[in-house]
Design goal:
This protein has 222 residues and is of the alpha+beta class. Strands 5-2-1-8-9 form a five-stranded mixed beta sheet, covered by helices on one side. A hairpin with an 8-residue loop joins strand 3 and strand 4. The longest helix has 13 residues. The chain starts with a helix and ends with a strand. Its main location: nucleus. It comes from Ambrosia artemisiifolia.
């Protein structure tokens, strides 16, 4: 009888929710500080590239690992970040494209998401002066949509601030969230990140309107 109950619970966790989508607004980009008097020919800036929640929520509820691929001139140009904050700091003098790959937890998706960000060290306006106090910040907003999540995943993320979930029909019963998953939510607070003061304040409503036409590109069929 115990074994049968366990089997039923496992089936409930993996059962798909038809015609349901959950979405995760994300922001990826970089913050670059000019080194001023400490700058040299090959070390003019210190910069950080990252992936974060739209208002800096902890993405580890869905993201397992983020891999950043830097220019080949860097030592170990492929860097994996296994826990939040999903960011990488380096120093250098040149701008280049960084490939960013998001790997998700197994109950979220087995398909990685590939993003590309052009590292910016200098202001867009050529007349803009460099400052050691005010960094160059370049960010992009996107929304990752997961179609037909499992009941277990929906239950796990339904109250998480990083995830947007629809309201289920009245009386619909979800499986309980394992205690270890509930505890994980309290371990990290990305809002303590010292870079937060420089992050762009994205308006979700405006950004979702911009993304409406391209939304299907990031939709994962599970």
């Amino acid at each position: 009888m115990v074994r049968s109950s366990d089997d039923n619970e496992k089936k409930s966790l993996v059962k798909k929710l038809k015609d349901v989508e959950i979405s995760v607004p994300i922001v990826y980009g970089n913050v670059a500080f000019w080194l001023g008097k400490k700058a040299s020919e090959y070390q003019s800036h210190k910069w950080t590239v990252y992936v974060r929640g739209a208002t800096n929520e902890d993405l580890s509820v869905v993201v397992k690992r983020v891999v950043f691929q830097l220019h080949s001139s860097f030592n170990n140009p492929i860097r994996a970040v296994e826990s939040p904050p999903f960011e990488l700091s380096e120093s250098g003098w040149g701008e280049f494209e960084i490939a960013i790959t998001l790997h998700f937890h197994t109950d979220v998706s087995d398909k990685p998401l590939h993003l590309y960000h052009h590292l910016k060290l200098y202001p867009e306006d050529d007349s803009g002066s460099l400052s050691v106090k005010k960094p160059v910040v370049v960010e992009s907003y996107d929304e990752v949509v997961f179609a037909e999540p499992s009941e277990g995943l929906f239950a796990r993320v339904q109250n998480h601030p990083a995830v947007i979930v629809p309201r289920l029909p009245a009386g619909f019963s979800l499986p309980p969230v394992p205690a270890e998953d509930a505890d994980k939510r309290k371990r990290v607070d990305p809002k303590d990140n010292p870079l937060t003061q420089w992050f762009t304040n994205f308006s979700e409503a405006d950004e979702l309107l911009k993304l409406a036409a391209a939304r299907q590109q990031d939709c994962f069929e599970m």
